[in-house]
Amino acid sequence: MALTLRPLHPLFVAAATGIDLTAPLEAEAVAELVAALDRYAVLVLPGQDLTDAQQIAFSERLGILETTVKAFRPGHKARIDLHLSDVSNLDERNQVLAADDRRRMNGLGNRLWHTDSSFKAIPARYSLLSARAIPGAGGETEFADLRAAWDALDPAMRGRIEGLVAEHSLLHSRATIGFTDFAAEERERLQPVPQRLVRTHPGSGRKTLYLASHAGSIRGMALPEARMLLLDLMEHATQRRFVYSHTWRLHDLVIWDDRCTLHRARPYDMTVPRDMRRTTVSDGVSSLEQAA
């Protein structure tokens, strides 16, 4: 079957059907998906009942995979392959995490608007999230179109921010919710990294904001002024007209372009198992190198 795209939002996001990711794809089919991502930024692929190996194999067709930063934690006990980020409420025995479990507290930071791996010197290109078990209600994922947000900025603000470089750190975003339980080894490997505040998307040629809750300062700007500017931009970019909310169904696979979108998780009953597994494709170069 040929790839079929059905828009789910006036600005971005499409349902993508007519493709089976449990089997190897031809290069032409992969190119079609990449072109669709360049246009829509977020693709929802229903009915993809993937194994971990199948998700990893397909994701590798899109680029080099990252490994989870959870492995930085001394004594980390992985439930799944380290090329998969465990976005669940389950421990290594597949039991629901206790209410006061450190992993649960850390995971609450996913409710902040963010883009994956902007706290890495080489950030993410794509994220692919697979729904293996879902609660009966809640747990939606919201996405914001940062290209549309850039387009809607007034010319004075565009002129003010183009060329600025922000500093991103996972330690900063987690500190905003009061979570500071990081080992010395983690803190050493999670030091702030620079990212362009405005990027040009290489696939579409469109300019886009590049924001995240991980951004805590702007180079060359006083910290209070930088924080207020980042808050103003985040408020602008997450207006409802720029946002799509995805209600998960079992075996949905959602792929999004981290270079031009924000996302956040929504609350759900955390006493009910929720098993979500994410592969993350590295962008290959820093946002500063890409701009150069």
Distance between the termini: 40 Å
Summarize the biggest pleated sheet.
7 strands, mixed
By CATH, the architecture is named 4-Layer Sandwich
Question: Which CATH top level class fits?
Answer: Alpha Beta
Please bin the fraction of helical residues: 25-40%
Strand order of the largest sheet: 1-2-3-13-5-15-4
Low-confidence spans: none
Helix-and-strand structural type:
alpha+beta
Count up the helices.
Answer: 9
Indicate the CATH topology: Double-stranded beta-helix
Over all CA atoms, what is the radius of gyration?
Answer: 18 Å
Overall, the morphology is globular
How many domain units? 1
Instruction: Report the mean per-residue pLDDT as an integer.
Output: 96
> How large is the share of residues in beta strands?
15-25%
Give me the strand/helix succession: EEHEHEHEEHHEHHEEEEHEEEEH
**What would you give as the CATH superfamily?**
Clavaminate synthase-like
Can you count the beta strands?
15
Quick gist of this model?
The protein has one domain: Double-stranded beta-helix (4-Layer Sandwich).
